[in-house]
Amino acid sequence: MLELLSEHVSFGGVQRFYRHDSSSVRGSMRFGVYLPPQASLGKVPALLFLAGFSCNEETFAIKAGAQRYAAEHGIAIVTPDTSPRGDGVTDEPDAWDVGIGAGFYVDATQEPWSRHYRMYSYVLHELPEVIATSLPVNTNRMGISGHSMGGHGALVLGLRNRHAFKSISALAPFAAPSQCLWGKKAFGLYLGSGRETWAQYDASELLLTLNRRLDFPLLIDQGLNDPFLQEQLRPEALAMACANLGEPLYLRRRAGYDHGYNFVSTFVSDHIAFHSRCLR
Fold first, then answer.
1. Most CB atoms closer than 10 Å: which of 41, 52, 59, 217?
2. Which pLDDT belongs to residue 211?
3. pTM of the entire structure?
């Protein structure tokens, strides 16, 4: 059952925030949804947007300025939290790159993380079912996008589940987390030492195992003044995998832009327009 936490009129539509009990993470979860004005006439397509480290369901909704463009295109935007939360949820209180606020959109296999950290299943199965049954959203016409850690999640969920997501984009994603310190740390804790398991959550490695061509291009924006570009994000690994396979990739390198929400808000209109074209 959904509990409405707040509601705000925005560009003729409405921004809402909800809470519900989640079977995937075995606890309470929150998410946001922007319903454009077209949703008053019937079900609209949806874009799931996954946020990054230390963010929650409100971050993108408040900082990105996406509602204006979602209203123009008649598309809902759904923003889940970035991890399970609560007193019984395992955390690393002195770390911001693992634990609460940093679920990495994986289904953890290692104790004690596996008790609650099942964000992959939550985003793929449970959240779409909740919004399909309770809100005027057509989950058969759904795209996925994200920023930073959330860009990693969007790429992995989209590539592994093309039946569920009809379009994929990302802003400054962890494109090859198995090759960066943040990814190695999180994967080691959540998934153990098995590199085969890691590969299932690494977009650059996943591309090499696709059994058919993508039906749409990937859209990636990356700021060239991003302080994490070289050591953590590794977009060149994704570009190389796409080039080797002949998969279409729009990798747009943006001079002067860094990693934050000034960058995200600058290019969010392009991403919403891209998903709108794919979903229609």
1. 52
2. 67
3. 0.97
Alpha helices in the chain (DSSP H): 59-63, 67-73, 119-121, 127-134, 149-160, 181-191, 195-199, 203-207, 235-245, 261-279
- Of the candidates 61, 88, 72, which has an alpha carbon nearest to the alpha carbon of residue 6? 61
Choose among 103, 122, 125, 106: nearest CA to 197: 106
User: What is d(CA 266, CA 274) in angstroms, rounded to the nearest whole number?
Assistant: 14
Please tell me which residue in 116, 152, 259, 271 is annotated as part of the active site: 259
Find out whether 20 and 1 touch, Cβ atoms under 8 Å.
Answer: yes
Would residue 87 show up in a list of annotated catalytic residues for this protein? no
With a cut of 70, list the residues of the chain below it in pLDDT: 211-212
Quick check: 280 and 251 in contact, CB under 8 A? no
Q: Give the pLDDT of residue 244.
A: 87
Q: Do the bridges between strand 76-80 and strand 137-146 make them parallel or antiparallel, or are there none, so unpaired?
A: unpaired
Give the pLDDT of residue 246: 86
148 is catalytic: yes
Task: Give the separation between CA 102 and CA 23, rounded to whole angstroms.
Answer: 19
Active site residue 21: no
* Token pair of 45 as six digits: 């397509």
Give the Cα separation of 95 and 178 in Å (integer): 19
Catalytic residue, chosen from 22, 24, 148, 169, is 148
DSSP 110-176: STTGGGT-BHHHIIIIIHHHHHHHHSSEEEEEEEEEEBTHHHHHHHHHHHH-TTT-S-BEEES--S-
Helix, strand, or coil (residue 40): helix
Using alpha carbons only, give the angle 41, 267, 274 rounded to the nearest 5 degrees. Answer: 50
Q: Distances from the Cα of 199 to the Cαs of 89, 105, 123, 176, 194, in angstroms?
A: 26, 14, 19, 9, 9
Q: Which of 152, 226, 271, 275 is catalytic?
A: 226
Task: For CA atoms 221, 226, 230, 233, give the dihedral sign.
Answer: negative
Q: Tell me how far the alpha carbon of residue 198 is from its chain's centroid.
A: 18
